[in-house]
Amino acid sequence: PPLSYLEVMKQPRVEETDGMLVRVVPLKINANLTCSTIEETLGKRKQLFMALLKNVEEEIGRDLEDMMQSQRVKDRMADTPLDVIMNNHHDLRASIVEEIKEIVRRYKKRGEAWYNVDENYVQAMGEATRLKEMAMNKINFWLDGTGDFQCEALAAQKMKDLYMTKISDLHRRALSDTGDQDGQRLAEQFCKMQGIWGGEQDSELESPIFTAVRQGQADLIPMICRAGGKVTETLSNGDTPLHVAARQGYKLCMQMLVKHGANVSTRNKDGRTCAHLACAGGHVEALKY
C-alpha cells in the first residue's frame, strides 16, 4: 500500500554466501494497512516519540522518588547536615525534573516534518534512551561526593554536561595504571555509555570491535580492548577487524588495531591479507601504511 516503509531493526551483519560477502540488514515491513492519510502517517513518528518520551519522564520520576527514599541517600544526608537543613537535596531533584520537562517541551514544539528527517529522529531517540542514565548520573555525582553544598552547585549544572564529564573520567581512569579488573570494569562502563557494549552479545550482532571499526571510530578501539574485546576476533569468512578496516580504507582504525596487537600478515579464508583488501578497494593511504 502507499506510504508503507521499511524499518531497520538491528545492526547490519556480514555473512558469507556462495563464496561472497553479503551484508545482512534485518528489516521490518511497516505496511499502511489502515490506509492512513498522508498527514496521519507523517505525524506518526512524532506521536510515537512523544509517547516514548512521556513514559521515560514518568519512569525517571518514579526512580527519583525511590532513590530519595533509599538507604544510600539517607547515609549521604547524615554526612551533609547543612544540605538537609537548606533542602539542597530537594532542589537537586527538582532541577532534574525541570530539566526533563524542558526537554519534553523542546521536542513537543518541533514540527512533524522535523521527525521525518532520519538524522533528526536518530538524534532524538539517542537522547531519549540516554535520558534516564543522565538523570541518575546527576544524582550519583552528589552521592559519590563529599562535603556540604554540592547539591547547590550540581543543581545549576546540566545533566548532559555532567554525563560528558563522567564519560571523560571513565576514559581517563580506565586507561590509567589501575588494576586489570578495575580497568576492565571501567572500560566496560564507558563502552556501555557509548552504546557499543551490552555484556552478553547477541549472536546475530557483530562484536563491539567490529561495530567500532565499521563506523570508523578508531578512538573507541583502545577502550573496547581494555574492556575485553580482541583484535584477533574473526567473522565467518575469516576477516579480522584489520581486514574490515583495510577494506573500507580506515587508516586510523588500522593503526589503532596494529597498536593493540593485530597482525598485518593474517589471512582470511580466501587467503587475503589486509594489504590485498586495501589494494582491491583502491585505498592508497591504507595500503601505504
From TrEMBL:
Coiled-coil ranges per UniProt: none
Per-repeat ranges for ANK: 237-269
UniProt keyword GTP-binding present: no
Domain of life of the organism encoding this protein: Eukaryota
UniProt keyword Repeat present: yes
Keywords recorded for this protein, A-Z: ANK repeat, Repeat
Record InterPro entries: Ankyrin_rpt, Ankyrin_rpt-contain_sf
Pfam family membership, one: Ank_2
Name used for this protein in its record: Uncharacterized protein
Organism lineage: Eukaryota, Cryptophyceae, Pyrenomonadales, Geminigeraceae, Guillardia
